[in-house]
Amino acid sequence: MERDMNVSSTSSVVHWLASLTLTLLGSVHPMPVTIDPVCTADTTAKYSLTFTGMWSQTSFPKQYPIYRPPAQWSPLIGVTHSSDYHIWQRNEFASNGVREFSEKGEAWTLMKEVEAAGERIQSVYGLFSAPALVGGTGQMTSEFEVFARHSFLSFIVRIVPSPDWFLGVDSFDLCEGDQWKESVTLELYPYDAGTDSGFTFSSPNFETIPQDKVTQITSSSPSHPANSFYYPRLKNLPPMGKVTLTKTKNNQIFSIPMEPTQFNQTGNEIGNEIEDSLINSTPLDCEVSAWSPWGLCKGKCGDSGVRHRTRYIHLQPANNGVVCPSLEEENKCIPDNCL
């Protein structure tokens, strides 16, 4: 499978979705549906969504993708729905649509699954998107609508490059009783779709057979030093992104720029200041190889000799991580072949 996803290759999908807010129920004949008793709001609500990428070389220094391709984000695919639907779910198997999206960034199968759920069981109200973000840090925006029977929000955005990793939200309820939440910010952490067993951002295709369930990636799981998110000194990973949901006043959706906003590596918007820093500094310790075998013991006859062994650096330290130890060691010995 080709790992170097070109964001422009999804331009046809993004163009079709960029300003799209599908109301999937409009063309379906009414069916008896159990109304979620938790939400009793009598009006619809419209929200703006801002996704902020926080994937920087400072916050995630290990194997940070610099080129072919550099760190970036796929288009965001979002759904508004009822409580009985999930576009993806932790500790459950990913659908074929989620597999294709998380591995290759291809959204057509996923969108067909969403539309089918809306037509079949009327669980889905709207489908929307935000454009791809070329860079690990920056922002993309979109907008959507919810109402009492479909007050839940879910979305997914692929980590590029990666085997099958993504950020997302599953079934976040925007309603509290008879009121809509005004503003919410959620921190986002990486998930593994369970369909590819690659350990690093740029791993070649390695299909997981049998398929695993969707799991959250942490600083210690998968517990393997080769994993791109393996930071044994950290109790928790820093957030890789965040999403801010803001209810628009008087239910009027204002004009939102559809082009993503780029940020430099310090976390500042280019040409403007942002309110808070995007950067969490993650220490990366030096990693070295095992020692080589001892070399020959060299020395004069009747005197003690000296032998050497060496090791080399696997990973340079960063962000005040533990510095590299000595790479050469010597030891006294009795000469094998004295001169």
UniProtKB/TrEMBL annotation:
Gene3D superfamilies referenced in this protein's UniProt entry, alphabetically: F-spondin domain, Thrombospondin type-1 (TSP1) repeat
Region forming the signal peptide: 1-30
GO molecular function: metal ion binding
UniProt-recorded name of the protein: Spondin-2
Quaternary organization: Monomer. Interacts with integrin.
Swiss-Prot/TrEMBL GO biological process terms: cell adhesion; innate immune response
InterPro entries, sorted: Spondin/Thrombospondin_T1 (IPR051418), Spondin_N (IPR009465), Spondin_N_sf (IPR038678), TSP1_rpt (IPR000884), TSP1_rpt_sf (IPR036383), TSP1_spondin_dom (IPR044004)
Subcellular location: Secreted, Extracellular space, Extracellular matrix
Gene Ontology cellular-component terms listed: extracellular matrix
Alphabetical list of NCBIfam families matching this protein: NF038123_dom (NF038123)
SUPFAM superfamilies in the record: TSP-1 type 1 repeat (SSF82895)
PROSITE patterns recorded: SPONDIN (PS51020), TSP1 (PS50092)
Main location (coarse class): secreted
Pfam assignment, any one: TSP1_spondin
